[in-house]
Amino acid sequence: MRGINSRQYLMIVAGFVLGAVAALMTVAGNPANMGICLACFYRDITGALGLHRTATVQYLRPEIMGIVLGGFISALAFGEFRARGGSAPLVRFFLGAFFMIGAMVFLGCPVRAVLRVAGGDLNGLTGIAGVVTGALIGIYFLKRGFNLGRSTPTYTAAGWIMPLFMVGLLLLAIFRPQFIFTSKEGPGAAHAPLILSLIVGLLFGFLAQRTRMCFVGGWRDLFLVKDTYLFSGIAAFFIGALILNLMLGKVHVGFVNQPISHSNHLWNFLGMILAGLTATLLGGCPLRQTVLAAEGDTDAGITVWGIIAGAAFAHNFGLASSPKGPSPLGPLAVVIGLAFALAVGFLMRERID
């Protein structure tokens, strides 16, 4: 019988530690069941830059800057920084945007879906079911030759753009010039101290880079090739967050009255199908895309900018849900996004059945 190797031990330990830290961040000031949420935090950054004007979700989240810089430091230290790009960047931009729209209908990314369940929010199960279903649809296309094309090496300077941009954002977060928007109430006003958020982000970025952690790729590999490596990180992350929440008395089981959550199961499910499908076609969830961008992957950088644009679309066009439920236009945007993702899956194949 094959045992757990050292590589998988590292993934399990990293997942457990990061899950516990994510749960602990809610005590430090981050919103409940949102210790770390890539979609939510990119949304807040988008608002802080004035790209949307929803006053309750505007804050330069240092965790995101830390994830990029932590991944960048790790990639440099272990000789894994490689500038590359050119794999269908425009398609990736729109897949990233539609990922974000699906996540905003659900109110969270695949990372937050796990954290929501670890906090007792059973609506997170609907979201996880959607992620898994989206990954399974993506697997259908992968088995039939879906491919966004190969990336090729490019100038080293191009790979530095995203880390340098995050340094700029960090300086803005530290000095807080007047043109940066900051929420006075709502989720954007709930945040841990800047230095703690940055340290946690650095830890996330470093460990995620070393392990290749991905909250959609884990499901993809589990069903596609029966590989449990990435999935073990998701499971350990959940256990770490659950144990911390139990210790802190933060587990409140149910569907209703959950923080920054709604109970429209249909659109929670469909929104996260869109998120799971687009992430599978892209080759990774927002955490993985963020870390890849830190490693010099300019295609992942374009995906991150698509996610930022999706956040702007979601809030400027009234697509994002609220605790009251989906907005009138959010479901329509999900349907359009699913049509786009399915068209990409069918049309971008190396062989046609």
TrEMBL record:
Record-annotated membrane-spanning stretches: 9-28, 64-81, 93-113, 125-142, 154-176, 188-208, 229-247, 267-287, 299-317, 329-348
Keywords of the record: Membrane, Transmembrane, Transmembrane helix
Entries under Pfam families matching the protein: Sulf_transp
InterPro entries: Seleno_YedE (IPR026366), Sulf_transp_TsuA/YedE (IPR007272)
Superkingdom in the source lineage: Bacteria
Annotated NCBIfam families: seleno_YedE
Lineage, highest ranks first: Bacteria, Bacillati, Bacillota, Clostridia, Neomoorellales
Name of this chain's protein: Uncharacterized protein
